[in-house]
Amino acid sequence: MIDPRVHNIGKGIHKDIQYPGKGPLPKYQKDTKALFHFRTYINNDERTLIDDSRAWDEPFELLFGHSFQLESWENGVKSMRPGERSMFYCVPEKCLGYTKLSKTLRDMHKKKKDKDAIVTKSCCGNQSTGYCDLDKLTGQSLIFEFDLLSVEQPGEYSKQIWTMTSDEKRLLVIELKEKGNNEFKAKNYDAAEQNYAKAIGTLEQLGLKEQPNSEEWNIIEDMKVPLLLNYSQVMICKEEYATAITHLNTVLKREPKNIKGLYRRATAHGGCWNIKEAREDWDLLAEVDPSQKSLVTRKLQELETRVKQKEAADRKKLKGMF
Length: 322
Hints:
The chain is of the alpha+beta class. It has helices spanning 71-78, 98-113, 132-135, 166-185, 189-208, 215-237, 241-254, 259-271, 275-288, 293-319; strands at residues 7-10, 13-19, 33-42, 49-52, 60-63, 85-90, 142-152. Strands 1, 2, 3, 4, 5, 6 and 7 form a 7-stranded antiparallel sheet that branches. Strand 3 and strand 4 form a beta hairpin. Helix 7 runs antiparallel to helix 8 (259-271) and helix 8 packs antiparallel against helix 9 (275-288). The chain is elongated. Mean pLDDT is 88; it is low at 1-5 and 115-126.
């Protein structure tokens, strides 16, 4: 079923150029980044479409020299020039790893599209990927169609976090925190949220390399506290109180007497009408820091006023129903 126009680029991989690219063949070295769209077909008479990256809005990024799970993709892209479209016919042995890659990409797209999306089991049993069409790919010959958009060499683009050294990640955290602070001051809350979230995620990656409760692990956990506090304040400003409470719980688990943590969690509980919890946090704040007693008294009075106003509004609404 191999197209007669194709030629070999390696054992079990045959290439068919649909549209030639422009310029010389790029130098593909460690940390070269290729950006491309792809389609995946089963190599059968119907040429059944499995995946199309255009449906996921963003092209695929391939970073060379990091043991990518599909050798056929690296070899295929290495033979291409920017602007080129080519099809690669691969024997089953050269397609191993595609099922796992496709599942990962599909799951990522689902989560991005719907934060509450749950990947369900497919019809193919307990060992399923969650996608019936992927479960049936074992032993199949596949065709990969690539549209190479661009090729960037090391130093021409911002490095992906997972390729950074520990020192580079630490510097990135400082930079992201500063960006988040500036965006927050400008009331650009969405941008602030993104920078703080990326900084927290970077620290979590650093923590994965350390033994829990080791000295270095504890340093990283301590570094997360101010970022979690800042992120929570953004969530309060956006009135996403439940998210704020979740992150403040993490802060207060590590530092039970953190003043900012108690203040912000009390505020968030009040925002989503967790009145009992709000009162408890305000009282605890006054206990931990007696200098805050006058502030706490005022906040509790404001909380009681809101409760009474809400109760009056609810009674009025209920009365109007009869």
